[in-house]
Specification:
The chain is of the alpha/beta class. It folds into three domains: 225 residues, Rossmann fold; 155 residues, Rossmann fold, CATH 3.40.50.970; 141 residues, Rossmann fold (3-Layer(aba) Sandwich), CATH 3.40.50. The protein has 28 helices and 21 strands. The strands form five sheets. It has a seven-stranded mixed beta sheet with strand order 9-8-10-11-13-12-17, sandwiched between helices. The chain has a five-stranded parallel beta sheet with strand order 2-3-4-6-5, with helices on both faces. Helix 8 packs parallel to helix 9 and helix 16 runs parallel beside helix 18. The longest helix has 26 residues. It binds thiamine diphosphate (TPP). The site of thiamine diphosphate (TPP) has 22 residues, from helix 5. Thiamine diphosphate (TPP) binds next to helix 5.
Length: 699
Amino acid sequence: MKFDASDGAVASNRIPLTALEQHRGFVDRHIGTSDEEQAEMLELLGYPTRAALIDAVVPASIRQRAPLALAAAKGEEEALHELKQLAAELRQETIDAVSVTGGHLGAGLGVVELTIALHHVFDTPNDKLIWDVGHQSYPHKILTGRRDRIRTLRQGGGLSGFCKRAESEYDTFGAGHSSTSISAGLGMAVARDLSGKEHNVIAVIGDGAMSAGMAYEAMNNAGAIDSRLIVILNDNDMSIAPPVGAMSAYLAKLISGGTYRRFRRFLKQLAQRLLPKNWERRAARAEEFTRGFWTGGTLFEELGFYYVGPIDGHNFDHLLPVLRNVRTMKNGPILVHVVTQKGKGYPPAEISADKFHGVGRFNVVTGAQEASAAGTPPSYTKVFANALIEEARADEKIVAITAAMPSGTGLDKFAEIFPERCFDVGIAEQHAVTFAGGLAAEGYKPFAAIYSTFLQRAYDQVVHDVAIQHLPVRFAIDRAGLVGADGPTHAGSFDVAYLSCLPGIVVMAAADEVELMHMVATAAAIDDGPSAFRYPRGEGTGVPLPKRGTPLEIGKGRVLREGSAVALLSFGARLVECLEAADQLAGFGLPATVADARFAKPLDMDLLRNLALNHEVLVTIEEGSTGGFSARVLHALAREGLLDRGLKVRMLTLPDRFIEQNKPKTMYAEAGLDAPGIVAAVFAALGKERDAAGVIRLA
Ligand SMILES: Cc1ncc(C[n+]2csc(CCOP(=O)(O)OP(=O)(O)O)c2C)c(N)n1
């Protein structure tokens, strides 16, 4: 089989992945070589060419250090060798799978050895292993019975891109949002103690996730409860972007301190000279060693944790003895500080700025990701960033805040131009909102750019620190509505419901990218209370963009098309579907008015009156849950008596269930929020149905 670098068809996934030069040389040499030549070269480069261990391995066999049936007869050295071979294969399989599905790559590559070591040492799933966020869990999924489905990752009907209890007994706690693992682990540890059981609970949390308040709340509580809980701090010195804050500096200090270097030197000597070749014995010595050797980690020790580390998370000689050691320790919470490299073993990831945190489909050989087609409209995120930059040029009080998502929110672009006016606060949405409140209290104009789903975490801060005090914090809410492959944990379903019930807030949704620009300008101009504007993931509609947005009249919608029978009232980016539905309805002799509400709060009462009084049917459409825009419309109609004349109202919202990952178009179709869904709702309101041939008949 051959690599074809031109079309990205990868005929074999067995690439040596130890160094960039090696990788490049390999690519050059492999174009046009025969299968035999390739096999020879792989052998020479040290890539495992023996029977694939990964084909047969399950956690139990990893634990026996005997992934191959015959391995029981082999020595310890051989077993360790097999774990290393397994690591190479697992890394390879992860790269190959993500090249097909897209998803989170760098984080998983960084924990390949750690994943194997954890399943090797602990009795999973009896011992409970919890992955924080879950974006690094692909190698874990491959090892725990899901290898055959790994190329369905993040696809409709496929494996989730995060840990999910319904998916496997090895996924002990669902995640997607960060920094929950220690709390969940502590709950499980206490449940174990209450029920008189003995198993281990292990939470793996990244240094980025360690920047969130929840992690400290959990550690503080764990120290007080003193239950036996193992926390593995996976420190790769990266969040999605480089980590920020004092904790990251503290961890760097621990790693650069003498302990880490001394320990590495000790183990190296142990491995090379001091002891016989038997690694079990070496490991046993290291176990003893761990008990008294480490110092440092004072912060964690003050919180009540027994601190172990830092240790090299890519070296089984280091990982296995330490994990064995902590497995047998009977005292309270333990924190094992493991140092890893994000993107480890895949040169294109290792050298990229974000270590391939999240990638689209890519060519395994070159690492090149699929580019969007030429002429694709800019993303809403990009339009937001550019619009905010323009506003900030005109008003020096404008500042921007992100909670560890500089590239995801587009604020990396803002920071390039206004480094002093852009703040990455870490994975700390609650703090981000109150921090913005403080800035607003002092006369600045903060834009807190936070995804809809992550803003959920900061709800009390929105209510208590911003809304009650009428502080003009502007919430730029990206990823509004269904988001596709990331699935229900990341869907932006609830923000309209949870924001528009707050007194004094202005809530907007952009129908297209020009509207988004206007809403950025509107929010900049609102200086007497909080405001929010939401916009979806992905590309805009391609409308021509002005240089700068124009502030909108607060609480005023717009009518795009007039019709006499039906009114379609859209809030947000389903407007395109409404226009298409109106076309279809016109074909059935049902002329429709199409309006864009722009504001869920305050509502445009003139517009509502007009729609309610002059149409037989009113359909509202939004990319959000019940209790949001439509609920407010219905409430207002009822209050004004506008329902009393028999107006037929239908409210199209997301259904009352979590929608699983798929292509956004499919998800919206499933939710009935596309043009056919809108047309069907109109027919249903009129008591008509469309038959299979598309002919309308009375129901
Ligand atoms: C509450 C919340 N905010 C933001 C995110 C987006 N997010 C996903 S992974 C990640 C970085 C995590 O860094 P770290 O824990 O160090 O793991 P790494 O990816 O470096 O392995 C962020 C910010 C999230 N999942 N949850």
